[in-house]
Write a structure and sequence with these properties.
CATH topology: Alpha-Beta Plaits
Strand content: 25-35%
Strand order of the largest sheet: 2-3-1-4
CATH class: Alpha Beta
Largest sheet: 4 strands, antiparallel
CATH architecture: 2-Layer Sandwich
Number of helices: 4
Number of domains: 1
Length: about 100
C-alpha cells in the first residue's frame, strides 16, 4: 500500500485564532495514536491565523478511517464557526530528482 501525505490548511476568522488553535490542538494526540498514522503535526504561521496539519498515513484506508473517527467528527462540528473559508486539503506527491 502506498503512503499518503496531506496538508490541511485552516484560516481563522479574525478574533477566533486562539479558539481555532485550541480546537485543532485537541485532536493531535488522539490522531497520532490511530492505526496507520505516521505523522500528524500541527503548525501555525505566526500572526496570520493560518494553521496547517502535516499528515503522513500508511495508506489511503488509514486516512479514510481517520476522516470518520469520533474525534474528527466532533472537531468538524465546531470548526465551521471558527474558520474564514473552507478547509483546504492538499494531497502531496514526492518529487524525485
Amino acid at each position: 500500500m502506498a503512503e499518503v501525505t496531506l496538508v490541511a490548511r485552516f484560516i481563522a476568522k479574525p478574533g477566533k485564532e486562539a479558539e481555532l488553535k485550541t480546537l485543532l490542538s485537541s485532536v493531535v494526540a488522539t490522531t497520532n495514536a490511530e492505526d496507520g498514522c505516521k505523522i500528524y503535526d500541527l503548525y501555525e504561521s505566526p500572526g496570520t491565523g493560518r494553521f496547517f496539519f502535516w499528515e503522513l498515513w500508511e495508506s489511503q484506508e488509514a486516512l479514510n478511517a481517520h476522516s470518520v473517527s469520533a474525534h474528527i467528527k466532533k472537531m468538524r462540528e465546531h470548526v465551521g464557526d471558527l474558520i474564514a473559508e473552507p478547509v483546504e486539503l492538499s494531497p502531496l506527491k514526492a518529487v524525485k530528482g
